[in-house]
Write a structure and sequence with these properties.
- The complex is a heterodimer of chains A (about 110) and B (about 120).
- Chain A has about 110 residues and is mainly beta.
- Chain A contains no helices and 12 strands.
- In chain A, strands 2, 5, 6, 10, 11 and 12 form a 6-stranded mixed sheet that branches. A 4-stranded antiparallel sheet of chain A has the order 3-9-8-7, with no helix packed on it.
- Chain A is globular, with a radius of gyration of 14 Å.
- The relative contact order of chain A is 0.33.
- Chain B is an all-beta fold and about 120 residues long.
- In chain B, strands 2, 4, 5, 6, 9, 10 and 11 form a 7-stranded mixed sheet that branches.
- The relative contact order of chain B is 0.33.
- The chains are: A mainly beta (about 110), B mainly beta (about 120).
- The interface between A and B is medium-sized, with 26 and 27 residues.
Chain lengths: ~110, ~120
């Protein structure tokens, strides 16, 4: 069955500390991979996406993610977290052809301590 | 470009009442999606339209949920009658014609938060 697992429901980091949010997926073939961020009361904003090529992708707001095929993972990282990064983060996968039907993980809520 | 517009932003209804949500996608986007996001969960696709035709409604509870996109532009999602478990944020998203590469992906609206009491 196709699924996306975000094992950390909540993560708390201090401002300025580094961050890594984990994402593992189960899919029939290598999918397209995405990270979205959702601030309270807002829709989802695309942070970055992986289609092919370089397995380290850069996104907005200083985020990056690394695709590891052997581990079926697509972890999100940021070297120095800002208080404004506090939000919920969703990993998603989608097929490489056909429709854009995404499967989302359950999300990781990030809290940033001043 | 203008984003995906949704209304209302919030709605509180009693169980067994009906409710409707409206979505206006990005101009020119052929594909429109409705997602349900229950608190503490990731969004779940309810229905996908390509122009005014339904592509996927396999997870839409058809006994109470309905959706339409009559002219291939804006869309309405209806719940009748509502149940307590329908309390969620309903997100609309749109995309250009499905393809590959840089254009792959879609834009979400801010959502409608529904509370059923």
């Amino acid at each position: 069955a196709q699924s996306v697992t975000q094992p950390d429901i909540h993560i708390t980091v201090s401002e300025g500390a580094s961050l890594e949010l984990r994402c593992n997926y189960s899919y029939g073939a290598t999918p397209y991979l995405f990270w979205y961020v959702q601030s309270p009361g807002q829709g989802l904003q695309l942070l970055l996406k992986y289609f092919s090529g370089d397995t380290l992708v850069q996104g907005i707001k200083g985020f990056e993610a690394e695709f590891k095929r052997s581990q079926s993972s697509f972890n999100l990282r940021k070297p120095s977290v800002h208080w404004s990064d506090a939000a919920e983060y969703f990993c998603a996968v989608g097929p490489t052809s056909g429709t854009y039907k995404y499967i989302f993980g359950t999300g990781t809520r990030l809290k940033v301590l001043a | 470009e203008a984003g995906v517009a949704q209304s209302p932003r919030y709605k509180i209804i009693e169980k067994r009442q009906s409710v409707a949500f409206w979505c206006n996608p990005i101009s020119g986007h052929a594909t429109l999606y409705w997602y349900q996001q229950i608190l503490g969960q990731g969004p779940k696709l309810l229905i996908q339209f390509q122009n005014n035709g339904v592509v996927d409604d396999s997870q839409l509870p058809k006994d109470r949920f309905s959706a339409e996109r009559l002219k291939g532009v804006d869309s309405t999602l209806k719940i009748q009658p509502a149940k307590l478990e329908d309390s969620a944020v309903y997100l609309c998203a749109s995309s250009s014609i499905p393809g590959r590469g840089a254009n792959y992906g879609y834009t979400f609206g801010s959502g409608t938060r529904l509370t059923v009491v």
